[in-house]
């Protein structure tokens, strides 16, 4: 194998505002959909409450308190040698309700400080505009992205960001894991679609909810295309990517029915949104799915042109695990992981949270995506959620995390050798944060340990883990030493 990582490869890490910032009601910030989601576990999923329950724990309210630790945190990222830092902006810090005309200046100022701190160390911000945190007012008053009015609110939000940070940010992502609204939960966390009080974030989508979820995603795809066009107009140096929850799906057996089932899931899970983002139009299989599932989208006559003119500059995605499917019930052994929920793959190992660990799947996925789209590709989430133990000497010996990441970096090298135009890698939760799926602090991903626990104790102090020093060497050697 002769391929090497490009000299300008974007090594870094990723976080999301609702999972790391805390300070949920500070300096004029409004209530987001996340601020009404309780903590949970695999056995007892997070759920929505119509108002804050004083007896419940809401992870986003405190998270890792990045809001007050960002200087310390960015300094640690710089010590690892980060070239880029993927973070999100909390929409409700900029527009507390989402439908205001003028932004909250305190929110604008906060991110100015964050971006300036990044540039101080030569770190390029990669900014997600909407990462699972639609303003709750837009859910309550408009029905979230089921309502076309919200497209206009999003476009106004984007215009404010592109103008305010014109000289500070040149890499943008529109909607985080846009496809997850079609997979579970009815689109509440992803698109602000209303759900009933007490609804689980992993609730199965009913027929009525499916119609709403597909409409919301259509409106988000239109909003994303408008954002891309706007970003290019405001600053031609801007590069805008989509962000897909990537999941390689295998047939469990060579039965052609299993192969076809896996193909259908790959199409709907990965390419339904990806094709619109990159190619500018819905694929044929999407229209067939609408017809067979009685889905009727309200599509404005102008939408086709908007989607065509708003294609992204690069394709980014998250990849944690793969899934397997079969039509044979007698061959199914169930697993309870996030993307890998369903049938267990006997050839893979699984994490404490039931997620398969499959580096080879990343190489397969990278090849599929690049061959399909022929645009630069970036992995913007990848990592292992695990229980970390603080040793008597204060160290965290997370060799299991190093092993997981090493396998995926090796798979990236192999994909580069295959000819994939891979431009960056930002492992998830580079600083410990609240898990999106369970809300737990104990499900840790980071290179940096945060002293904060599920029982809301801890002083938020930061400690580099063993993986911190491993990743530093990976970056220093541009992926040659892993």
UniProtKB/TrEMBL annotation:
InterPro entries: GH, GH_1_N_CS, Glyco_hydro_1. It comes from the Bacteria. GO terms for biological process: carbohydrate catabolic process. Pfam families: Glyco_hydro_1. One of its GO terms (molecular function) is beta-glucosidase activity. Keywords: Glycosidase, Hydrolase. The keyword Hydrolase applies. The keyword tRNA-binding does not apply. One of its GO terms (cellular component) is cytosol. Belongs to the glycosyl hydrolase 1 family. This is Beta-glucosidase. It comes from Pediococcus cellicola.
